[in-house]
């Protein structure tokens, strides 16, 4: 709804992108931000508030989130600060049709994909001792679905930027040919 409201004059695809970006900012700031805070002052496992309860539940799927794993906390600091800011800038760039839109979009997507890779690859390399893959809910909903969103959608947005840049290049090439 927020994407539709913000992108009133934008193309339908961009309204969907704006919806995703609004969701992305909300998750980074309102869910992952408190995780970073809890991890810097102690651990999620030691904390007792609504955000800690949420992360304790997710910690049943990936125990690293309970005990302030340095890789996870480092990535989440980067995600909250950099990805949150880039998503806000990208929202503005799409709404105002700014020339730097695809640069920001590609940068954000690469950051999101890097975050997904670095969240799981180190644990995979040591045999996934922190991942609970024996429970259907934890494996397929918490680990695959909730994390897969941040792989699939940035991948689609990279493709959108590729097509947008390709179109701009062809338009510029065609303009040059007409001038000659």
Label this structure with key terms.
180 residues, transmembrane helix, EBP like, EBP, mainly alpha, elongated
Commentary on this structure:
This protein is an all-alpha fold and 180 residues long. It contains six helices and no strands. The protein has helices at 2-6, 12-41, 50-59, 70-95, 101-125, 136-179. The longest helix is centred in the last third of the chain and has 44 residues, at 136-179. The N and C termini lie far apart (47 Å). The relative contact order is 0.10. It comes from Gopherus evgoodei.
Describe what is shown at a glance.
With 180 residues, the protein is mainly α. 78% of the residues lie in helices and 0% in strands.
Largest sheet: none
Distance between the termini: 47 Å
Secondary structure tally, helices: 6
Contiguous runs where pLDDT drops below 50 for at least 5 residues: none
DSSP strand (E) fraction? under 5%
The helix-and-strand class reads mainly alpha
- What is the average per-residue confidence, as pLDDT, rounded to a whole number? 94
Q: Bin the helical content.
A: over 70%
**What would the principal axes of the Cα set say about the shape?**
elongated
Radius of gyration of CA atoms, rounded to a whole number: 19 Å
- According to DSSP, the number of beta strands is 0
What is the H/E order? HHHHHH
List the helices and strands and how they pair.
Blueprint: H1 2-6, H2 12-41, H3 50-59, H4 70-95, H5 101-125, H6 136-179
Helix pairs in contact: 2-4, 4-5, 5-6
Subcellular location: Membrane
GO molecular function: cholestenol delta-isomerase activity
GO biological process, one term: sterol metabolic process
